[in-house]
Amino acid sequence: MQSLEALTRDARALANGEIVLSAPEAEVARQMQICNACRYCEGFCAVFPAMTRRLEFGKADIHFLANLCHNCGACLHACQYAPPHEFAVNVPQAMAQVRGQTYADYAWPPALGALYQRQGLTLSLALAAGLALFLVLAVALKGTLWSAPGGDFYGIFPHNLLVGLFAPVFLFVVFALGMGVHRFWRSITPATSGAPLSAPAAAEATDAVLRLKYLDGGHGDGCHNEDDAYTLARRRLHHLTFYGFLLCFAATSVATLYHYLLGWAAPYDLPSLPKLLGAAGGVMLALGTAGLWRLNLRRHPLHGDAAQKPMDRGFIALLFLTATSGLALWLVRGTPALALLLCLHLGAVMALFATMPYGKFGHGIFRTAALLRHAVEKRQPNPIGLGAD
């Protein structure tokens, strides 16, 4: 009966042109009202200073705050109103549920937003395996599946074929992510003062992103994982993963310049720049994702949204598979295993790219946008004249 009454109330509100909050959004609004009265956690991260600039929490405000949250867990472990208290304040979990909803709501094209709910570990690995199998069959038809082509990748897959396969997917990923974050930015800008982005605000937000500032728990000792102990492990492992991915991307970019501008065809050997960047990035990415997988398995059940764990683990698994298969290619060059392993690596990379706009990769893009808007908003006069920035 209660759910029927809620549906009736929502239908009436929609008919009157009012904005209806989903259940997770309404829960964040409830908890923020309690937190706004307490303010014990005000110095922990960007969420709580941003919260103090509001007396009410509309949909755009909630989406903004949810993507500011880094799910460090510090506020949960410090909160006197956390479960089993009757107020049941669990900001990390409530924010995580809304965050997952925003990824789906702002996805482009909108019809594919539901993939956020379906993109899990099994789907990610199955997609990688399916694409790898397709490539294996293509190579087998050429009769080069178990041979040693002198370490030349292009002897197995011509360069133009690889470009034709990966370029359209990469361009779609960039466009889809760009459209998604544009819709998010357009939604939260009026709720965050509406002021334009400035150079000082951009510099501050960039610093927060590159240092993962808000994974230090607000005091530099780190956040929480499976218990009340502080740990910097999540911050360090995220750094390894983030910068490892960037180095791998840089290696591919430099190799592209080598090929098209200098006419130097792959493979590249040490001490070439693509090999140095790729080797360092691959090792960092493998170590970072292995560590994050371990932390994810041990994470406190009250942290985050359990429904999003398959998506989280699917993304971690694809990154790990991409890194380790890329490193293994270096070791098997000149052996009959090269073609088979190359198919596995390309399948993992293609699956990673295909799921990027509708998986965990998007959270870094949305969080960056939220940090930019926070840096802009905090430079404006406090609209309610209460509290401190």
Automatic annotation (TrEMBL):
The chain crosses the membrane at residues 121-141, 161-181, 240-261, 273-293, 314-332, 338-358. Signal peptide: none annotated. Coiled coil: none annotated. Keywords: Membrane, Transmembrane, Transmembrane helix. InterPro entries: Citrate_utilization_prot_B, NarG-like_sf. This is Citrate/tricarballylate utilization protein. It comes from Acidovorax soli.
